[in-house]
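Re: FE2/S2 (inorganic) cluster structure - here you go.
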Amino acid sequence: MAQDHLVVFTPSGKRGRFPEGTSVLEAARKLGADLDSVCGGRGICGRCQIAVAEGDFPKHGISSGAAHLTDWNRVEARYTDKRGALASGRRLGCQARLCGDVVIDVPPDSQVHRQVVRKAAEARDIAVDPVVRLHYVEVREPDMDDPSSDLRRLQAALAEQWGLTNTHADLPVLRILQPALRKGRWQVTVAVREGRDIVAIWPGLREKTYGVAVDIGSTTIAAHLADLATGEVLASAGIMNPQIRFGEDLMSRVSFAMLHPNGDKEMTAAVRTALDELIGAVAAEAGIERGDIVETTVVGNPIMHHLFLGLDPIELGGAPFALALDQGLSTPARDLGLAMAPGAFVYTLPCIAGHVGADTAGVVLAEAPHEQEAMTLLVDVGTNAEIVLGNRERILACSSPTGPAFEGAQVSSGQRAAPGAIERVRVDRDTLEPRFKVIGSDLWSDDPGFEDAIAGIGVNGICGSGIIEALAELFLAGVITEDGVIDKAAAERTPRVVPEGRTFSYILREGEPLIAITQGDVRAIQLAKAALHAGVKLLMDRRGGVPAERIRLAGAFGSHIDVTYAMVLGLIPDCDLHQVSSAGNAAGTGARIALLNVASRREIEQIVGKIEKIETAIEPRFQAHFVEAMAFPHKSDPYEKLRQAITLPPRSRTGGEAGPTRGRRRARLSAS
Ligand code: FES
């Protein structure tokens, strides 16, 4: 009787004994080793490539070598004739059979669950294991003596050849079934979602499918098209959210829905049309057919989420801010007006609370605070700030009404981040002279050639990150006091501090347009940052006052802001500066993770279910925290860690004339 051979797979370490003649693919499947296959071992897809490790492996008690697999066979020769040579030392795992003990190396491109390595700064790599998988099948031809439908024979083939015993196809898929089977001469590739729903069928062998990860913001919609086998992003595009014509910010869109019959439906149609165009754009950029896109994932704030799904957002416009649903949801793409594969689905991530949406769920998925030992603070600053605090023990979330000041609105020279906007500012501590950089040029304003460099751009205003730096620098230079007053004493030190009514302004740039930091600007930022900080404090209270050990700033503002300046102004609480960083577009990353890894969907649904939601509007301590947080960086918090890193001005207050809470709006949803 033939002897069993020991096979060890690396990197998984899976090992077992198999009879002589067992294919490497078969052994891998039996052991649960990670070896891919689309064609089911027919030697046509090339996804099962392996290499034999040569030499002695005392750890495994094996002497391994290429001769311990059967010789190169005709199927492999046919494959290389058609598809080109394999890399040196590679074999097709479905063809190579055991004839001795071997250590088999499964290269990353042959692993089903391959890792997409994200940037070092990001929280974790993505294991590619999409919800839709491809299965090549040979289907029995119709037979007069044994009549059965094409669907039944396809289902039988999927059951026999892939163990998928419960497959289902609905009408749009059935419409392509018969032509695909005949064109492929009864050989087709079937895209199956979660082992059940047939979403697409192609004649012959198909090796690629694609998915789109979408972030629906109130201003822009961004989409990334990814290869579902490798996780690679092949095309990205953004588009303005056409709902802007119904209202700039979220509250005005809810008002539009309230005041206009079918207003919500108009906004739903607008966002769906835009997303459908965007999907067409990324498909065209990647040079693929829309019909090859088998899945889309979507994140967005609660109002964007509801409007996209066709759910009336009116309830989100007032207390108690009830969501229609907070679970993740899979919806046929065609029901949402999106042209993709005939049976494709759209998965929307779960919302956390009435003000904390699927975009924040995306941030949580990308940043994984639930896997951290360290107390982690995630802040996504838009017109509302979404705040998440916690670690593996417990996570809390809230939203705080920061208003649009961080986006340059409510600031006298403010503008959105665009070419010509001042984004970096430095103020000389002695002379109080400023220098700055504008978006579109790498030169500082006091560098030779600056004026030439910006000739085509101009200096038009100051964006959110610029105003944060300007205020922080002016505070550090002693022009702005701890209470946020532009100090009239500074007027004696520099002609740039000029009176304006009863208050003072600082001239950042002379000329046309004149760009000044006014007392009103400082107040607008104080109100916004105090709201943000107060929200953080509420969550910290619930965690027994434990400080944040790690802070991640998400979103566009979080990506551009200098974290040191953010801390100098007290937007965020005191923390070791090395532990504060930008999370980039974490919401979009979350959508991409949900696209590429099916298990992450269950993960985020479970986490969201456990997140404790805090409603800032009804928290009695919010106002007290807010008042304390008006000061730079904070009235009572000593910011000791920050003081170890930089020199803050000595603590003294002028008790300026602008009261700390004056003009404070507690209105919600001015936008996000
Ligand atoms: S499984 Fe397709 S070529 Fe081996």
